[in-house]
């Protein structure tokens, strides 16, 4: 499977063949990943896929069963938590409720015996960074959820850790706040140049914030790549479905000419698609087309599939259509529209560029 870009130079964090068991249950299997210094990597996957377990293993909060973890080129799997230089931000803020903002943020510095004047300077700077300057005397209960999460972030970065671990830090915030915080966390991470590992099950968060995304499913890596790579070139059926919407059109190869394959779809339509390799006639394949790549119109277009609109969602400037083309499930098209959207029951032609799709084999793995 695609591993995405490898970082240049010595990785800031490296996992080699990690297995993690809870009793007999393998929560993570054969996990390998190298993270470049200063990059923002997201572990993305559904609940229970093992992403939190991996994050906790870096901090030393869970033991790995086999493999190696290195931070800055040094193995840490035998180093206790308090000696690992790591900043942590959790979903539920985890501030000390009876300590004021200053004492909350200063915690890691006091613990490291930093002189008092230096602590005051660094706490002030961290609070400026999270845009809450002058809030030193406030108690957590006097702050909003978003502000508390900024304080938690200030506390995690104030001692300049080698790695910043963020475990679903935005999931307790309301939708608007969440979007602002996405931008802000990303900005602070770039400004400080800190290496960050972020855990989320939210694909939008992953796509908008990450340099690279690790898509996980049931304890194993499905794909590692840039947001563009995992979205446009999903390596497996799981990735195609987990990141955004995907139309999955099963069919059989009927002919191959040059780099183009002709496929007889289960719906009875025939389509052409660009294929990275030669495929034998009769092979089972699935054509994966994003809703944005489908054209819905009456004019002659490539890969024309006749169908009928079954539902219309007008979103102002664009519309999402579900179109019955004779398969088990309707295809979904998301198109820009000028004027009125098409209505349910209307016959339409749907088309897509042969180069605007991905082919999966019978096992659901992308054909390379
Ligand atoms: P979520 O988003 O729900 O937190 P996750 O992808 O972070 O999910 P993990 O918390 O890493 O998943 O859990 C991975 C698997 O290991 C799950 O099946 C979970 O039930 C199991 N697991 C986690 N912690 C323990 C534990 N302490 N003891 C036993 N099983 C555990």
UniProtKB/TrEMBL annotation:
It holds the Pfam family ABC_tran. This is ABC transporter ATP-binding protein. It comes from the Bacteria. It comes from Mesorhizobium shangrilense. Belongs to the ABC transporter superfamily. Keywords: ATP-binding, Nucleotide-binding, Transport. PANTHER family: SPERMIDINE/PUTRESCINE IMPORT ATP-BINDING PROTEIN POTA, SPERMIDINE_PUTRESCINE IMPORT ATP-BINDING PROTEIN POTA. Residues 13-243 form the ABC transporter domain. One of its GO terms (molecular function) is ATP binding.
């Amino acid at each position: 499977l695609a591993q995405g870009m490898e970082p240049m130079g010595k990785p800031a964090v490296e996992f080699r063949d990690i297995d993690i068991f809870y009793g007999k249950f393998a929560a993570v299997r054969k996990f390998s990943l190298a993270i470049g210094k200063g990059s923002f990597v997201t572990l993305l996957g559904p609940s229970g896929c093992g992403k939190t377990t991996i994050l906790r293993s870096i901090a030393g909060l869970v033991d790995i069963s086999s493999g190696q973890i290195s931070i800055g080129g040094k193995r840490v799997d035998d180093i206790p938590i308090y000696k690992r230089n790591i900043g942590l931000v959790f979903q539920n803020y985890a501030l000390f409720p009876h300590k004021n903002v200053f004492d909350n943020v200063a915690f890691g510095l006091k613990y490291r015996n930093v002189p008092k004047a230096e602590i005051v300077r660094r706490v002030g700077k961290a609070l400026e960074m999270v845009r809450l300057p002058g809030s030193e005397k406030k108690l957590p209960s006097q702050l909003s959820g978003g502000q508390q999460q900024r304080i938690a972030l200030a506390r995690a970065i104030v001692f300049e850790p080698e790695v910043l671990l963020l475990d679903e830090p935005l999931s307790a915030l309301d939708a608007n706040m969440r979007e602002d915080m996405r931008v802000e966390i990303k900005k602070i991470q770039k400004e400080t140049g800190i290496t960050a590992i972020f855990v989320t099950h939210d694909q939008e968060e992953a796509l908008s914030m990450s340099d690279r995304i690790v898509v996980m499913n049931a304890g194993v890596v499905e794909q590692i790549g840039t947001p563009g790579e995992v979205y446009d070139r999903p390596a497996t059926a799981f990735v195609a479905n987990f990141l955004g919407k995907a139309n999955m059109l099963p069919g059989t190869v009927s002919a191959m000419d040059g780099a183009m394959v002709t496929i007889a779809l289960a719906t009875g339509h025939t389509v052409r698609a660009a294929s990275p390799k030669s495929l034998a006639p009769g092979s089972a394949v699935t054509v994966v087309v994003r809703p944005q790549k489908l054209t819905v119109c009456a004019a002659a277009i490539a890969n024309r599939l006749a169908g009928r609109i079954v539902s219309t969602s007008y979103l102002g400037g664009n519309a999402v259509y579900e179109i019955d083309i004779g398969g088990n499930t309707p295809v979904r098209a998301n198109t820009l529209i000028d004027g009125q959207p098409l209505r349910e029951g209307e016959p339409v032609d749907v088309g897509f560029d042969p180069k605007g799709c991905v082919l999966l084999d019978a096992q659901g793995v992308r054909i390379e």
